[in-house]
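Section: Multi-chain targets

For targets with more than one molecule, the full set of components is provided together so that the structure can be written out for the assembly as a whole rather than chain by chain. Components appear in the order listed by the source. The example entry contains two components.
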Amino acid sequence: MADSTLPIHGSLDLTPPREHESTWLETLHSWVVTVDHKKLGLMYMMMSIFFLLVAGAEVLCIRIQLAVPNNHFLSPQTFNRFFTMHGTTMVFLVGMPLVFAWANYIIPLQIGARDMAFPRLNAFSFWLTLFGGLLLYYSFIGGPGLYGTGSAPDVTWWAYAPLTAKAFSPGHATDYWALALIVTGFGTVGGGINILATVISMRCKGMTLMRMPLFSWVMFVDGAFVLIVITPLTAAQIMLLIDRYLGGHFFDTQAGGSATVWMHFFWIFGHPEVYVLVFPAFAIASEIIPVFSRKGIFGYPAMVAAVVGIAFVSLGVWAHHMFTVGMTSAGNAFFTLSTELVGIPTGIKIFNWLATMWGGKIRFATPMLFSTAFLFQFLCAGLTGIMLSVAPWNWQVHGSYFVIAHFHYVLVGAIVFMVFAGIYYWFPKATGRMMDEKLGKWHFWLFFIGFHLTFDIMHFVGFEGMPRWIYTYPADRGWEHLNMIISIGGLIQGIAVLIFAYNLFYSLFKGKIAGNDPWDAWTLEWATSSPPPVYNFATDPVVRSARPLWDLKHPENPDWKYD
Amino acid sequence: MLPKWLRVERIVRLAVFTALALSGHAFADGTQHTTSIFAPSSTPATEIYHLSMFVFEITGAIFVVVGGLLTFVIIRYRARSGDDESEPAQIYGSNQVELAWTVIPVLIVVVLFLTTARVIFAIQDAPKPAAALEVTSVGHQFWWEFRYPKQGIDAVNELHVPVSSTDHPTPTYIKLLSADVDHSFWVPELAGKIDLIPNHPNDVWIDPLRPGLYLGQCAQFCGVQHANMLLRVYVDTPEQFAAWAANQAKPGVQDPSVATGRHVFETQACMNCHTVQGTVATGRFGPDLTHLMSRDTLASGMIPNTRDNLRQWIRDPNTIKPGCLMPAMQLSEDQLDQVTNYLETLK
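Its structure, encoded as tokens over all components, is:
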């Protein structure tokens, strides 16, 4: 592999390394006060991994409880808190920080910038997100002397009205849920603004929008998208708090409020939110699949159009989460159609990734293993999504384990798999060391097997009529053996994640030295040193195509000739 | 058309039966009640079943084609140890190919949408026949109330409906209301689920074609005991149904031998929440107990309706259904026996 520093203009770090070894207090201080996009990106990432472990532990308790019928491992109250916290944590404290982890670390490096457009806003956004998360978890302890303290939210992560009204949720658990997410929501908006401004105004010389690597393109769309998506949720949560404390009646059905208004607000946020979370997976796949297939991305303009198309169409599909709410038949038909339309740009993305691999020389290192599994699982998730879009069938499987299987195929099968792929791929850039390949393969295969044991079986138990959100089930329904398999699969995934966590620490100290460009890749981040200096590039780089390093490595056949 | 053995419908059935066999419940005995969405016994569920098989065929075909291509690419284009260091040919795209894999999905969407829309209208806008039975279901934390306005019946947790037939359709139209939070009415073999939402009345209809017991449960999270908000639908022959309805319409049995139990019931807080028709107990918060003994189960389908269970339930419902809204009334052992004796006369 090409290990030498490439003579790209401006990429060489000419300053000598710092002699002075800092104390741990100085190191800690430097992380707390930093406005550097790389450190903030890594902190977002560490926050995500921390909360991934927490939410993973919660769900393992849930799976122990459900492994056998009539189990008493968790009380119903604890079970309801755990699945509410699992969902809330995974979406808002794992998925959302991941968006900004990737965007922060990679975008400035990839577009040849020295930092994000608003470094201080960046730091502010991160700390809001982190403290929002801590506020949510403080609900387990609560303020002493208040009624209902020591209880976490237990109203599902949808928090459907009127279960969240004072009458049905006394105490403060629901307040923690709403307030904490309002706080992280503000952090998210700050992060979204920053991505937009950075991509629009910080690109290096020569990098027109259509020469921007696809990763940055997708994250750019994601940044714009979160600004639209997060606001309805924040608005609804403020209305909920007004209901609870200022005598409002937005969702208070006992005073004439509307439960369905909450549903609309929530899903106008909630459905596009899934795309907000999955876009980083698309972004990472669009980098890894070409590099490991040794071919440039197939159909770059189509890929850009598809992601913009998905963002637009997905703003008009929210009520497919509400087919059972009792809409008119015309309403049900409309949302069936709009939902199925999303499948078209999504299909285009899958076909283009496939065409990129077609005719290549595919190297199945760990990042590519995860990416290949992602393609397969994302295909399945799309197909079960089509099944769910069919309103009458949705009346059967909505709120069942089939739905759980479907969205975990997206959230785990697509997003978590690509997050692992991305970590294996960019870890050498961030730390200067390779992640251990053998542990990586163990991680991949165990996680892959555990994933399919758990989530493939969930489809069937859903077909057999098992609803979600139940803390126990009778023994006469024929669900117990399938649930045992699901739980075993969950345990295997847990072991795989522990191997991954061990690999992170092991490779951080003992990993093979990576060099600047271990994967023989083509985008600008691989032109600077590993880890990159604070200022990224000593002088501004200049590019002539979407693959500047390909142009340098292949002067006989550069991309810019076909631009 | 594919050969018959290759039809996706058959493959899906096979997969489902394999899964069922795996779970040790391959319909081994006739009394096993499934809650499978693939065992429809009523027109709405059957229509959905056929639609789902059609969608399986389309998505199955897409899966085979795209999954097959992916497998082919992985095997054919993997890097091999003998490869030279050269890069493969760089191909940047093709408008024709992009157009093809845009247009084909558009056509698939059109077919899927039209088929789906037909079933939506067929189920949701089906005209109500004059012979239809009308029931109003009210969801409570964590039990079901079934009112039969024309028959003057207030039943609980166990819904009785007459069997329907293609010659003489006697469907049941259920109006869905909620007394507190959102619930969802789901009996997979009879129909898809529809939510019970306060201030937002909904409807669902069923026309069960075979008598028997059908199981279901609440499918929208409604609080602590959502998991045990179970639902039983008894599909009766017309004679059975008429007999059941006639009994339910009567006031509560007045048996002088259990007067002490009745006295306890009516002087403690029991009567604040429960109704026994024909007595001073007219509470509306908990289930109507007028015909408690006509029900097979207690606690919304959780436990069989036996004397021991009933007594334990009155002693402290939270030992059976933790988080349910009925408090333990701190009755003495004698009072417990007396109240249980009284309730056992309410046939």
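Chain B has a mean pLDDT of 90.
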